[in-house]
Fold this protein.
Amino acid sequence: MLSSTSGNTQVDAARRGDVTPAVRRVASREGLDPALVSERVANGTVVIPANPAHLSLDPVGIGLGMSVKVNVNLGRSPTSSCLSEEVAKVMTALKYGADAVMDLSTGPGIDDVRQAVIDASTAPVGTVPVYQAAESVDRFEDLDEDVFIDVVRRQAIQGVDFMTIHAGILAAHIPLAARRKIGIVSRGGALMARWMVRNGRENPYFTRFDEILEIASRHDVTLSLGDGLRPGCLADASDDAQFCELDTLGELTRRARAAGVQVMIEGPGHMPFDQIAENMARQKRVCDGAPFYVLGPLVTDIAPGYDHITGAIGATMAAVSGADFLCYVTPKEHLGLPDLEDVRTGLIAFKIAAHAADIAKGHPGAREKDDLMADARCSFDWDGQFRLAMDPDRAREYHAITLPQAEHMTSEYCSMCGEKYCALRNSAIATGRKAE
């Protein structure tokens, strides 16, 4: 088990100058000096979600100077999937390179599903506690304030590494959301707005934030401050509702850091491409450099069935412009819960986005595999090409479709052009690198 010094959070240890095993592991994975990683944990520009109760965890770092990370959302609903299917999604996500998974399960048996996900995952596991709180009542507005806090505590004890807490959406923000074309699209944000309006009271996650900080500190849970007012269409992007909530998240960030609690900020979902860079810069200013976790952003509203592509386009720009953590979008976004193939497709799309951003930002070693891939292609080293591919299985499958099995791994041409028209083969002959 990798954890902070006994009785202290990662932040407490870093501020004392102690380099924890989790920090050393992150530094090794990133190719950085452990002292530098520890310094950034201390000042809040890097987080390492690592609940000591998550025994199988292999820690990752998110934030300044880290490679861009990708999260996979999964989880059952009252009408779809089961525990074994969710575990299978975890294994698929890990196989194809997910850096974290979030269990967004609703319906009965949530504790059992979450425990199975935690046990199966070597990556950090996140949750949205308000979903489980909602399961205890028929009408959300009837939920007692104490339940909001009790669920956070229960999930922290169980071993959740990071939690989305919708503490930034306030009663004063709801009229701003009412001006929108599409309103509130965050499930958690809409639930909290309903609770506040029906009860005439302020958001309990905000009014009782100190209790949440105490729980997070005790169990070293990283808080992911939720964007309950994220824009759900291009027309609502960069509006007063979004930015007023962001200002509140900036205040909560400073309170969390003062309490020694790791914190990151969640960001927009739908946004015109030309607004992304400024939104990333604004978040970093308002939240004092806290790691930024974005869903997409999706850069058009008219591609249902292909939103893994619209999201990956926005995610690349977001990551180049400062986002640290990307939440994947699958082809099923807006349409239904993802199955195993959707998880694979969405994850690979966002791994491509993250990798492209790492290359653009000059992250150490980011382009190494790309250069090796160029060498393998030039020498017709098919096995090398497949090993270097983000999805080796898919690459092998496509290459084998149109070539005879005997030629699949030995041909000095691909199935697109054939031997006569192969540009690489003809180039090698023309330049003397290969005899005809």
The beta strands are 46-47, 62-63, 69-74, 100-103, 125-127, 162-165, 222-225, 263-267, 292-295, 325-327.
